[in-house]
Amino acid sequence: MKKTLVTAVLSLVLSCAWMLEDAQARVKEEELVMSSIQVLEEIMSIPEQAIPPALLNNAQGIAIFPSMIKAGFILGGRYGTGVTVIRRKDGTWSNPVFFRSFGGSLGFQAGAQSIDVILVFKTPRSLDYISSGKFTLGGDISVAAGPVGRHAEASTDTQLRAEIYSYSRSRGLFAGVSLTGSSIQVDYQANSAFYGTAGLLPMEIFTRDDPNVPPVVGDLRRAISRHAGPSPVGAGWSSQEKPAPW
Q1: Are 214 and 194 within 8 A, CB to CB?
Q2: Which residues pair with 114 in a beta bridge?
Q3: Dihedral of the CA atoms 131, 212, 225, 171 (nearest 10)?
Q4: Strand partners for 63
């Protein structure tokens, strides 16, 4: 009898501990989404140095990595976590998928700094790489430093064929940046904690319309819609289309 009671108590304690751990993890991811919103709003509040509206209005997807750490001595590296959303076929923006980004570099460098990074996906083909859950910038898919400013146009960029434009903000300065060699991978643990379901694939999250998602998801989608307004119906990715192979 005592053994059964002890077992029951231990099970209850462990269950409570797991629930608390899940709740804490979810709070962490919610804070990351809120930080992503803040980064976008702050960058777009200065038209002369922001991402060109024309580029955002035609974007197929947007990834935001707040406070990516860039550090090194001779050999350098960068690491960060962020969220990615894609434009659906009806022009609306999807739920966010959590990704990790990391990469290295060689050259004279020392010290560490925190940077905010935004990636703008230009083409429907670039969404195939997002759905695959893992890709390398400049390897699997072309990337170029993005143009900035109200009057900047993507058509004037010398690397027009790039499928992704990349931007970074450091110490108050915002500019296009080359992230060639950076690896982008889906963060399954973060997605599981945030949505309360293990093993979700990117396309499952992009296409789900669960009304029980955290309220911060709506805040993110509205913020992106303000700056990269809904496109004409038929311009984005469709849930009826076949996703990229895994």
Answers
A1: yes
A2: 69
A3: -80
A4: 84, 119
Handedness of CA 197, 202, 203, 209 (dihedral sign): positive
Cβ(37)–Cβ(30) below 8 Å:
no
pLDDT tens figures, 122-168: 988 888 888 888 888 888 888 888 888 765 654 444 445 789 999 98
Please give the torsion angle defined by the CA atoms of residues 196, 200, 206 and 209, in that order, rounded to the nearest 10 degrees.
-50
Q: Which residues make beta-bridge pairs with 78?
A: 70, 103
For the chain, how are helix, strand and coil distributed in percent, rounded to 5?
A: 35, 30, 30
Distance CA 33, CA 40 (A): 11
Terminal C-alpha separation, the chain = 51
- Residue 222: what pLDDT? 95
Domain boundaries, the chain: 19-227
